[in-house]
Write a structure and sequence with these properties.
alpha+beta; DUF3750; DUF3750 domain-containing protein
């Protein structure tokens, strides 16, 4: 009980107080969705892959983030953004600016690859997006999943070369998108009871314990604590591959 208080309830309480101090933000209809300037102008000669994450809308930003994927194959003149949403067809293509603010909240880059590294990843990521099993209207569930973070985690799992992990605030990332409660991640394994309880251990993932979707853990590769609501407290973002140009 003491560990649960220190590593789950206390961080969520602090995150709630910070959220109140910083302001809850505008409603979704008035919030800023413009580019955050994280992507360069599209270069037809360059391939690009990005995974981005931003706190969710209003009070849900206390404990949850929303993740999405951006790709640009070599030869393409525009970026293509993939989100998994609760309205319309779940896989939403180019519904927002590729690096747009998520209803006023600034995104951060979780994974980045450019040039030949991105070229090698893109066809497999596109195939995984096409094969994603939860594509029917009504499949989306905010908790425990499948939600936006389940979708992005599934694409990353399908391409192990994406040696990165979603932030601990990505509620739903541990939901068993393939129906398997024990599965491999990019650099380790994940055991989960329907997304409600789980354990992830891996080189990049570190050790993560999921209780009702809230994740606490530790990253050894780039030392940091992972806490519900507060995210990573330590040396910075997870390890990303060498960018090739």
């Amino acid at each position: 009980m003491l560990l649960f208080l220190l590593f789950w309830l206390l961080p969520l309480g602090i995150s709630g107080l910070l959220h109140l101090r910083n302001g809850i933000g505008d409603g979704w209809w008035a919030a800023d969705r413009s580019s955050a300037g994280l992507l360069p102008p599209p270069d037809p000669d360059a391939a690009v892959v990005r995974v981005l994450a931003a706190p969710t809308v209003r009070w849900r930003g206390i404990f949850a983030s929303h993740c999405w994927i951006v790709i640009k194959p070599r030869g393409a003149r525009t970026y293509t953004r993939y989100d998994y949403t609760a309205w319309g067809d779940p896989i939403r293509v180019n519904g927002f600016e590729p690096d747009g603010r998520w209803f006023g909240r600034l995104p951060e880059v979780v994974f980045a690859a450019d040039g030949p590294a991105a070229e090698a990843l893109i066809p497999r990521m596109q195939a995984a997006i096409q094969a994603y099993p939860h594509q029917a209207r009504g499949d989306y569930r905010a908790w425990p999943g499948p939600n936006s973070n389940t979708f992005v985690a599934a694409i990353m799992d399908a391409v192990p070369e994406v040696r990165a992990t979603l932030p601990p605030t990505a509620i739903g990332k541990d939901y068993p998108h393939d129906g398997r409660w024990l599965s491999l991640t990019g650099t380790g394994f994940r055991a989960t009871l329907g997304g409600y309880l789980g354990l992830t251990i891996g080189l990049v993932e570190g050790i993560e314990i999921n209780i009702l979707g809230a994740v606490a853990g530790i990253d050894f590769l780039q030392p940091a604590l992972k806490l519900p609501g507060l995210g990573r407290l330590g040396t910075g973002m997870p390890v990303a591959p060498v960018v090739e140009r």
